[in-house]
Protein 1
Amino acid sequence: MPAWTWFELAIALAYLAGAALYPLGLGLRQPLCKKAASLASALGFLLHTADLAAAGLLQADVLQHGQFYISLFAWLCVLVFFVAWWRFKHDFLSLITAPLAVVLFTGSMVIHPATTIVPEHLSLLWFGLHVGAIFVALALLALAFGAGVGYVYLERKIKTKSKIPSALQEMPALDTLDRVNALAVSVGFPLYSISMLSGFIWAAFTWKRVLTGDPKEVVSLGIWVLYAILFHQRLALGWKGRKPAKMAIAIFLLSLGSLVLINFLLPTHHSLRAF
Amino acid sequence: MSQRIHVIGLSHKTAGVDIRERFALAGFNPVAAGLVQEHGPITEAVVLSTCNRVECIVVGEPGADVAHEVHQVWAQTCNQPVELLTRHTYCHTGAAAVTHVFSVAASLDSMVVGEPQILGQLKAAYRSAVEAHATRVILNRLLHKAFSTAKRVRTETAIASSAVSISYAAVELARKIFADLSRHSALLIGAGEMAELAATHLLAAGVRRMAVVNRTVSRAEELAKRFGGQAYGFDALNQALLEADIVITSTGSPSVILTASQMKEIMRNRRQRPIFFIDIAVPRDIDPDANAIDNVYVYDIDDLNGVVEENRASRQQEAIKAQAIIDEEVQAFLQWMDELRLQPTIVALLDQGERIARKELRKSIRQLGPDPDPQVVAIMERLAHSICHKIYHAPITYLKRRAQEEGSAERFVHQARRMFNLDGETPPEDAHDDRKRSR
């Protein structure tokens, strides 16, 4: 029996179509192609929602599967993208979220069930606060990463007075990209903090210690400090533009690196694969 | 022979402004002027009259000297000698006329390639023609296709996506930085024709407010009144710079009025809110080093000229892509014209078939006696009708295919009309007996 089902394959293909058609539509200046990309992503999202709901309802031990977490993260990334689309009236960030959804979702399809053990009486609290908050924060960071790359590129073009290629003429303005960053920081950082705090409470319950020295814990604390600096500079000092954009790029890349390297390769109680 | 499309016109390419204004046809009604008449040589007309071109797009009867007719009416309407007019006009017929109309609509033939006004002007000209009952099936289709082709060109190429004038380039850059200009305010420092034009364009693009700073307060007040904004003296410049996001500077100052270090201080006070300087002054008003400060964007007149030049060059590149789209649409339109030429023949063929079928049906019904069974009569009618349509199906399909494949509908239509004797020709005396009998 294959590790994936036909239903999962359909979701992956819909996301893949969304990821491929959008840049194609930009390059060929075909609005229909971009519309088809959005429809494919929306279809993928609907199927994905059904898939997650089915997993939640039918599998009693769903929270113990690494696959579920990565799939949920992919779903949240797409959800955050749709919210941002509605909020900023711009579908340009599809350039980053659609490929990310493809990578995360196909990644989730090939992951073997993890051995995460969750005591039942704490599972909902732990799941809701720790995992839910961190995944939404990471999805927002993914959005800020896309907006950040766009900002740095466009700002460089404007500062150096160079021509913007015709395929990228429809890029959002610097102000819009900066507002995406502001959203990711002002909503993402508190969520990240909630996740960290609930993690420490969880550790205190489980291991009777707040700090356990787990690699994920150490790296996450480091990322949190960077995130806190960004949050403070934006809100207190009024940072705008290139600096917060670059910082959001760095924080997202660190988080992604931490997700891949620590959650999959190092021995940690955040492992998403079986050892 | 069938009706053909003609374009007779003059434009900035063939006539100077003095000629164009003498032959302008603003508010021209083709029916009232006698250009389009019930049984005249011209059956349809749309007249486009703008400052850069005057064109008559007409449909003429086969064999008519349409160009001559148009020149006569046109010169007469403008009260000018027809010889002067013919010296400056161009005439396109058939495929060339269709290509020309599509190119004009898509702004490929404009003085500034890609400018958007021409499409609106063509739409207005078409509306007037429709209201004057001067269009029918061919021009209706041609103009609608011209509008959709222009839309295709605008969406599928970048022909109109970049500004080709300094003030529009400035507005476009402001949009790249601020997105929605209605949430931002602008400031005009100094005065001057180009700066005021840029200010007018910014206001038209939706800028929330336009303040004015001038060394002469009375001049500042005068400009502020014109732009509906607030006036400041030069001593209030720093205060004005805290509020404005887009700044147009055009003073006659011999040295910079704002240094990079002053700008750093202002940015701190602005809490890093982005600011865009459009420095039109020569010598420059803003220290060019200010462009290196985060969230400060400084464009001087040369930078804006550079943007405009690049955009002009890229529009020419895009025009090549646009031409390919136009060629494709022209082919599709000509195919429709070919099919349109077939239409009367198809109708005549079916009509002839049905006539024969009805005649034979009447004979057969008579043989059924004085009181035939209505059910039998109905079945026989259906049978006759069906045989007729089935027999003519193959020749009609053949005609349609040949018209599409070879674009020579006319020749096949002619043959088909002779073959089925649709025009009721009398066979000559020496014709074969079979042909005489077939009548």
Protein 2
Amino acid sequence: MAKPIAERRQGVGFITPLLVLMLAAFNLPILYMLTLGFWSKEGGFTFEHYAQLLDTPIYLRVLANTMRVSLVATLVNVAIGYPLAYWMRGLSPRAQFIAVSLVIVPFWISILVRTYAWIVVLGNNGMVNRLLLWSGMVDTPVSFLYNELGVMIGMANVLLPFLVLPLFAAMLRIDDRLMQAAASMGAPNHTIFLKVFLPLTLPALAAGTLLVFILCLGFYVTPAILGGGKVTMISNLLDILINQIPRWEQASAVSTLLLIVTLAIFAGYRALDRKVGT
Amino acid sequence: MESKMQRRTLMRTAAALPLVSLLRPATARAEVKEIRMIEAGGKSGESIEKGYGDPFTAKTGIKLVRESPAPLGKLRAMVESGKITATLFELGSGTMVHAKSLGLIEKLDWAAINPNPMFPEARNEYGFGYQYYSTGMAWQKGTKPLRSWADFFNTKDFPGKRAIPDYVGSAVPFALLADGVPVDKLFPLDIDRALKKLLSIRKDISVVWKAGAQAPQLLNDGEVQYAIAWSGRIVEEPKLVFNFNGAMADLAFICMIKGSPKEEQAAAAKLYHEMSVAKNQARAAEVVAYTGPSPDLDALLPKDKLFMYPTAKVNKDVQWVQNAEYWAEHGEEGNKKWETFKLSL
């Protein structure tokens, strides 16, 4: 597999412009923002902002809240996304095209529009509640919005394509004959799924899940609108620290902590991946 | 005030800053052709243009270029990076005091502005209080009317969901009023007591809103029955009622950015003068129901609309005024307590 070194070096020249651009326009400013967290007002090096981070329980509580909401939203995504991708695999090519289009279309609509659309659908006077009231299934409107449930629904809607598309692609690559072979040896359906199909999709599932989880951590619009302001996530807190107060040093410390946690999760995933791979 | 309503990510603001500075070279010009103002946007921004920008341009030939929104972070980025891309910046009252302590704004030359008569609280050393707005209770017509803040917190006799602002300074004082603290004893605020009072109706607080447009939307949709809202967002809604009784009056200021070109600051003094003219303030009030600081304004406003305006005699007398100094000092501590409170909602 290893290419000759000369050939590998050749590529470097082509990506240098992009590399320089990324470093100068993206990485350096981020690095600068992160170092702000170590500057004191007088201009010297300090840990005071990190000390405050630990002294003020609210920052850590919001971070923990963010992790919890992200985890649940990711699990909801998996619970919906995996069966969806599995179902799409069995469709005719034409139906698959339509299904994939339906999954992708929301991608092209502004996240704000999509978020507000949920208010029309799930509000107290929304379509769903009116239907429920009319059918007599409930007496008072169900509170779908302005709580964690609303945030979960909104986040699942935004993030589903990030999970379904790679998962669907991985499932398409699985050779049907593997399942047929298992069946020919007398394995019942659920055994075929658990022992043959599921393991083959696990790498894509793990990668998609991780991607979705990390995207969840940075959500801002959805919790702000569908959470009714009561589901505070770390980006909402950062917005206050950066724009309202403005305490960039504290924001920098919070961001650094978030980055470390995210990298730790990613490292954990890589370690697990390597273990499974060998 | 409304700067808080229009949220942009830091990314977008940060991306826009270098662009703006590219478009406008820093070379000093002898003759000022335009001055730039960063303001809250929306209807409020339109009112600045129609009420004050247009007469200013007609008299001086200098254009007023507007840009929005105006979060404090943007001002800090501008002054600390030394890339000053505007002369004027809109700030809320508490934010202005905070910006002053951070050294982000200049003193105004009131002698050069030579304003027409204005309410004393609007004439600040560091800013021109150009727009009054009120924060108070609102509901849909047909809902059982509230008479006091105690009623707002009495969910037994006045059942229904509540919406409150996601700004600590616009929420906690009302809880204390409801808890029996008299207006003249409000400050210094007992924030902990206020949050305890708010927690007592936790089940009925449905939404904590961030954008000013949310409150009328929630009321119109029947999503909540009572809300603490900004007056200008409610009074022009046909189905909604705003109660000025016990409401909080606050001021938005136009401030001068530290380090902006001196000749532009001199030109801005003429714009400030236009902002003090009652006739211009009446034109601005046609665009948005927030009013300027002239004591002579009432006579120029349409009689049938007087009930809408924060400074109309009937309304001004029943309100109390926000304590900006207090929030400039306790804003950060208050915010921490507020965020903690929201986690237990």
Protein 3
Amino acid sequence: MNVAASVAEKSMQTVVESYKNMGFSIALTHTHNVEDANDVFQEVFLTYWRRQPAINSEEHRKAWLITTALNCSLKVTSSSWSRKVVPLLDAQHPAQQECSFHFRTDEEQALFDALSGLPAKYRTVLHLFYFEDMPVAQIAATLQIEAGTVKVQLSRGRALLREQLGTQAERIPFDD
Amino acid sequence: MTDNIFKDMREQMTPGTSTVDELWRRIEAEPEQLEQLEQLERLDQPKQPAADAGVDAPAAPTVAPASTPVPAVASASAPVPAVAPAPATRKRGSRFARYIPAAAVMLVVAVGVTAFALSDGLGNLADKPGLTPAPTVTTPTNDSAANQQLVMASGIEVPASYQELYQSILAHSPELQYKQQLQALAEIVPGSASEAPTEDISAPLSAPDNTGMSSSDAGSGAQGEALGATPDSIPPLSAATTEDSSAATATATADAASGGNFSQTNVQVANIDEADIIKTDGNHLYALFGNDLVIFAAAGADTAEIARIALDKTAEQVSPGNSVELYLNETTLAVLYNSSTNVALYKDDSSGSSTSSWPYDFWVQNTEVLLYDVSDPSNPRYLDSFGQSGYYQSSRLYNGVLYLISNHYVYGNEVDEERPGTYVPLLSQGGQSKIMPVEDICIMPNYDFTRYVVVSSIDLAARERIDQQTVLGGGDTVYMSYGNLYIASTEWQTDESEPYQESVYTVIDYTEKSVTHLIRIGIDAGTLAPAAQTRVDGRLLNQFALDESNGYLRLAFTKDGRSYRILRDAEYGIENWQDHSSEAQTNGVLIFDPNLELAGSLTGLAEGETIQSVRFMGDIGYVVTYEQIDPLFAIDLADPYNPSVLSELKIPGFSTYLHPYGEGRLLGLGVDADGSTNNGNKLSMFDINNPTDVTELHTLALGEGYVGALYNHKAILVEPSKSLIGFGKDSYRTSSYQIEYLLFGYDDQEGFLPLASLALGDGPDAWYAGDIRGLYVDDYLYVYSGRYLDVFALDGYERLASLQVSDAEGAPYIID
């Protein structure tokens, strides 16, 4: 393969290797099931390959991938869910119905299900903060919202999770 | 920060190998790339110098010969300009240097050298490992020479033609350069180049004919003469600035709403309206519930919905999207709307392979203003719509002119040099679109993304666009005074040094920090004229961090940063990280003259803390920081060349929002904190009659709960003339959520008087509430809470009506 092509493919390989877990995990927490998450995961990197966004730093690349993953997830879920909000305590909650991703422990599963049931904005900041270890300022920059808003959404999201998990919440290192 | 459960879960959330394999199959099957790769293989071209430069670019930020290491490393080196990008850093240097006018570079170097010599040096971090902020507030300095290092000004570029603009974008986009190289090689073989797209890039996939994105990138593409906004010919500030927008803020709350006894959106500058999800004219309420525009007759107990429009389904509407907020201007209602259109790009592959014509679709983000005539509110009539590329950022309404601001991204692979419509924002009206004229484009120096901020000024009554302007460089924070629009964009800048040897290691030093670019666009009855720009090390809290008074811009910032080194031992494949230290955060206020040259500055405020709220009020600016001492600073700004701290009130907790409250009083809403423990929210009233001795007169702890008004100034109702303060709150209790609207009075003797905690909606699903707003009209209080409209009597606080307006949970969260 010629040099130009192999370099492009190689850099794409690096990008996929570095970010595939991030892309997939965001897709999973925002679509709740593996099939959709796989679709979103592929769509994100294909879009990156096709659109060749003008990226000048790793921070930017990461932010671009996160934003695209969130948008793709939104598109997938808005077509497969109804928009109507279902109260969290309802046993027929779509998140619980569709989730086919299984975690090793019950505790992890419960946390994932609870997270999946939150309104999107809380789910997003909680995911980026706890699963991607991103500091508040970086989350704010990526999502184009103010740091104060991120903090409030984290705080509110944690509260909602605690509410949902009951006593199980005590063992989770929320660290606030 | 996290260990165990989150990490474990994260480790499990990985894509399966079959998914990854399928991804690669699809990547490799992309015809365009594949076709061009095949061409190159057939040609068996030797490595060409042009190709090399292009080829290397996308692989990693590895290009650019650079000279000296970042100052942070060299402890005793010759002074290096602290902020000038050209010589000091490897990433920015060669590519960007030629865009800075030489004179400006010389100036910066001279200033930088002086500044570096005078100051402590931006960071001899080798001498200060593991910085911990000192618990006492350090002495602020207003040494302008030293503080100059924070600021770098140079010229705005105006391209003379679309071609020149294209070259600038090309230079900023390694991916685009690479693509160009491939195309150049492919063209050598006749008949082998990919066909240009057969369909216009802006044609929608399934075309409702009024989507506002139809063809025309010829449009008004006349290669107009350059605006010529060089630093020497900056348009004078418009006369409007004789009305001082800063002083107007201070007195704004003393005036009751003009022409009627009803509340209006809480805005930063008096008479410059800001959009919100609900507005009233004293007789009706106009609100957005998700994508439904709902109009109510405001009639106390008899309040009723009189009209409703599903904005994303209305026939004359643009593509599906999300309504964001609205304005009411006399009898015109303007709804701000984000729409995304699916666009297909068709390529014709002449090689006859089975993947011959493949659609590649993507979505294009557009910001729309939808105009409705509400002279008969029960019968709103669609009038027209204006659109522009990008997602909605902000807006203002002043004297009947709507200023609309959006951010538009350009993607390298969609850019076609021959068609400016692929790399220049588009404007539309009523379904007809045109390309932004060249003379309305300007380029910020050192812009990092290929992102434009797009501004339109629209006369709502005449329903025409007065002017337009776009700036290549983006913008996140918007502040408008009577004569100027200031747009700031903050990015996290990462710089790396050239590798150097240290014993067996190859070391690279990294420094990262926030950098804010700011542009001033003069406005005059809707005409837009970019006038000046600057760049500051640091970030801004929000729109309240900017304020103009007598032509001078005051800016409050937090300067942050960190640096670290990575040491690599190639032989053993070891990589060590070292010295991941944060530079002590510091805060300050900068004052710029009308040319955005630094006039005065005050830095070194509250080292180690972060600004939490700012309110500029004429000659005094109030700044609150947090996180150890939490002082409220009163800063004297009367002499723009010599700001100074008048007082510093150390109190526990901090305000996130400051609001002038009548004569000599400042209201603070914020967090009740004890060191870094958050105990909930609180209200504070400060006596600011004597800025050299500010005191906290009264305070009321509000307990825990989510109060949106802490971070969104539109969510609070403050009416000193009625002694009324109101905001929504939702709190979590053991078994159910509660949302309520809290009302307080204030009296200098008694302090804050809790008047009522009004329960909203119907209880159990209350936690779905999004934003909460309270408005009063005559003797009634109307509370909007995302799904409900509740009506209360202001006398006695009895709930008179509760309308469930919507099932959905407000507008979905828009990220892009």
